Here is the input.
Amino acid sequence: MDLVEVAFTDAGKTVFVPPGTTLLAAAGMAGVDVATGCTRGMCGTDAWRVDCGAGELQPAAEPERSTLQRMGTTADCRLLCSARVQRGRVAVTGDAVAG
Ligand code: FES
Here is the structure.
């Protein structure tokens, strides 16, 4: 199984995790603190910006998709508790930016 590289650029930390791992779990492995609430894609507390190629994260499913839409975030924001890596390299930076 190919591991996925997840880089937390603000913290300067990188971990390699199996496909299907959430970005929140990756943050935990990297020792990066993330403020969370529900951990189920509903509160939006952990909306961060991600930079990756197509297909490197699994597409947002419900309820993440609805929560991001309600928050009005930019298209590059995902909820760390819900976004799961798929392949390649994902860079995660800072907090969400309203669209
Ligand atoms: S912690 Fe609530 S949406 Fe992720």
About this structure: The chain has two helices and five strands.
